[in-house]
Amino acid sequence: MEACKIMLPEYVAELLDHLDRKGYTGYLVGGCVRDALLGRQPEDYDIAVAAAPEQLIHAFSGYRTVETGVRFGTLTVLVQEYPVEVTSFRREGAYTDSRHPDRVEFTDSLTADLARRDFTVNAMAYRPDTGLIDPFHGEEDLRRGVLACVGDPHTRFSEDALRILRAMRFCSVLGLSPDPRLMAAANSCSPQLSEISVQRIFSELEKFLCGEHAGQVMRQFIKPLCTIIPPLEKAVGFDQKNPHHIYTVYDHIAATVEACPPQRLLRLTMLLHDIAKPYVMTEDANGVRHFRGHQERGAQMAREILTHLGCDRRTIEKVCRLIRWHDLRPAPDRISIHRYLLQVGYEDALLLTQVRRADLSAQAPAYHDQLSQIDAAERMIRRLQAEGAPVDVGGLAVSGGDLLALGIRPGPQVGELLTALLKAVADGKVENEKKGLLKKTLQLQEKAE
């Protein structure tokens, strides 16, 4: 990070110039300054200005605006179809609802406005003519790769416990390490997360999970994560005592999260895929632990957890299927893979190859040679997909109508015959073409009679 000079989009420069002409000095603040210093493209831009809300409304009377939070001094201004939040400098009172300040006091002090923010890296301001304004040394913390709170971290987290999860997100996405005081406060304030709405919690959880450093953050912020997902607590320090594993259940989960692509669906799956292991564990006479049924039990637990967190139904169903099937290990030959596809379908089969790779990579190195089998299985899945190999009766070259035309009587046997034909195709006993399938239908009918 050299001397700070941030290139601004035209629409942002327009708003700053407009404020200047109206007699108000606006500053870029928060995440856009942080991201620009890191060389990242800001997702959005926020402007803070020493003007009361009614003055802001008047100043932007020529623009389309949305009064998104005028009570708290925030006005969204639409310029060239881009939304920019413009907020009055303010001080804040106590947060008795653990979300909003009880009172807001507007001020003309930029430093006072920055002092109310959560982390030093978010408490910087910028103007092209004055450069970086950084009273809390956020740029230095970025250089050091540290996430620290503005002021006392216990106070910051007590005001809004969701900031604990925001800390996890910033560490995960930006690769920052938590300051020791921040970490201690995050642990001590974790119980307050129970006061936060599950919608806000799940939103931050998803963002944190998709960061490049999610696995490391899971190892650092164990108590907060177990507070929002209590069944995870049993996984912490739980020795698997099994030759396939070198990690505790929790550390294995963290390793699989960081080993899979940073996609929401996959990372939710890995977070919960082995959550049931401590609940189903048995130990044999040799002291080896086994986890039979953890896939099915894990899918049930995942459903309860994700439902409680307000996750959408489609994601819940998909995650539960992937957890239920995550230990299926088909041989990579054509028949085995086609049979496998009849059970899971193409989409889930390809997702499961990524789940299996992540899972295996976090097991004992002696078993990593099985990664080549997963690669071979994926190649066969893609080959069958390219060929259009059927994975349900809808993909067969014959329909129920064709069977009726052949003389099969209406009823359940039509569906049974179609299912039998599908299995025959998967087993390589007949090609998926109409003439051969009709001939096979008559043979199956004869056997049934």
What does this structure look like?
With 449 residues, this protein is α+β, with helices and mostly antiparallel strands. Among the domains are: 10-144, Beta Polymerase, domain 2 (2-Layer Sandwich); 393-448, Serum Albumin, Chain A, Domain 1 (Orthogonal Bundle), CATH 1.10.246. It has 21 helices and 13 strands. Strand 3 (64-69) and strand 4 form a beta hairpin. Helix 10 runs antiparallel to helix 12 (249-259) and helix 15 (294-308) runs antiparallel to helix 16. The longest helix has 28 residues, at 334-361. 37% of the residues are buried.
Briefly say what this structure is.
By secondary structure, this protein is α+β, with helices and mostly antiparallel strands. It has helices spanning 10-21, 31-37, 53-59, 110-115, 138-144, 153-159, 162-174, 180-189, 198-209, 214-220, 222-228, 249-259, 264-272, 277-280, 294-308, 313-325, 334-361, 371-387, 400-405, 412-426, 434-448, and strands at residues 26-29, 46-49, 64-69, 74-79, 82-88, 90-92, 104-106, 125-127, 131-133, 146-147, 177-178, 282-283, 289-290. The chain contains 21 helices and 13 strands.
